[in-house]
Write a structure and sequence with these properties.
By secondary structure, this protein is an alpha+beta fold. The chain has a domain of 169 residues. It contains ten helices and seven strands. β3 and β4 form a beta hairpin. α3 packs antiparallel against α4. The chain starts with a helix and ends in an 8-residue tail after the last strand. Pfam families: DUF547 (PF04784). It comes from Enterovibrio gelatinilyticus. This is DUF547 domain-containing protein.
């Protein structure tokens, strides 16, 4: 009995440590092999298949855009597979950096949708991944230019360190209600700036971005996990949110600040 209890306590302690570790936000650390481009190449990636998927299954509901995973047909599932196959057959380093940004954001979002579709129905993306994993972000989910990649690789070793743009957090989608919305339009080199600004504006003005109730300001946990990308301190983060947010400025807030995030699946 004593040995069984000891094993239980040890396992419980391991789970606590493991959980705190997986929930820690990954740092922005460049994977150097991806930091190159061919600015003389005027060719654009074809994201039309991804746009067809978005047009067919993404709907607006209040502050959310929701993806109707349960309605995806076999034909459209195959279309998504073909899009991912077409995209990953190309080496993004042979393209302009502006094309690369759209490539990586669309790839991340399309892969996330595919991961959900492969396991649907599920209640949350956090239920995916290996044993004791909190989601699939460290799983190898694709191969580009001979390199096996995880979603975390794309976001934290490619997008964040190469572009150093906090709006990236508004562009990549984790299939959750608390996440900035999956854009209704596929990213391209031409529309990237407008889509990033639109995403930042939408999120910062939504209840899941920032809400005030009495003396408490509730912010998305994104500003806690990735605060370093938004500012050096809490007031600097609030100032950056204010750049896109309408109404009363948050900078100078002296009340309580807490963080929240809804991991429920972004489905109708």
């Amino acid at each position: 009995m004593h040995n069984a209890l000891s094993r239980y306590v040890t396992l419980f302690a391991t789970l606590i440590l493991f959980s705190s570790d997986v929930l820690a936000a990954p740092k922005s650390e460049l994977w150097p092999i991806w930091d190159s481009s061919n600015e003389t190449n005027s060719t654009a990636f074809d994201h039309s298949k991804w746009q067809q998927i978005l047009d067919a299954y993404l709907t607006e509901q209040g502050q959310h855009t929701l993806f109707n995973y349960g309605a995806v047909t076999k034909q459209d599932n195959a279309l998504l597979d073909q899009y991912l196959s077409d995209l990953t057959a190309l080496d993004p380093r042979n393209y302009r950096q502006s094309e690369q940004f759209a490539y990586w954001v669309n790839l991340y979002n399309a892969l996330t949708v595919k991961l959900i579709l492969d396991e649907y129905p599920i209640k949350s993306i956090t239920k995916l991944g290996g044993f004791l994993s909190f989601g699939p972000w460290d799983d190898k989910v694709t191969t580009v230019a001979g390199q096996a990649l995880t979603l975390n690789d794309i976001e934290h070793r490619i997008l964040r360190p190469i572009w150093n743009d906090s709006r990236i957090h508004y562009a990549v989608n984790c299939a959750s209600l608390g996440c900035p919305n999956l854009a209704k339009t596929a990213f391209t080199a031409k529309n990237t700036e407008s889509l990033l600004d639109a995403a930042a504006t939408q999120f910062t003005n939504s209840p899941k971005g920032a809400t005030i109730s009495d003396n408490t300001l509730t912010l998305s946990s994104i500003y806690d996990w990735y605060g370093v990308d938004f500012g050096d301190n809490e007031q600097a983060i609030l100032s950056q949110i204010d750049e896109y947010r309408d109404g009363k400025p948050l900078k100078g807030w002296t009340g309580k600040i807490k963080y929240d995030y809804d991991w429920s699946l972004n489905k109708p």
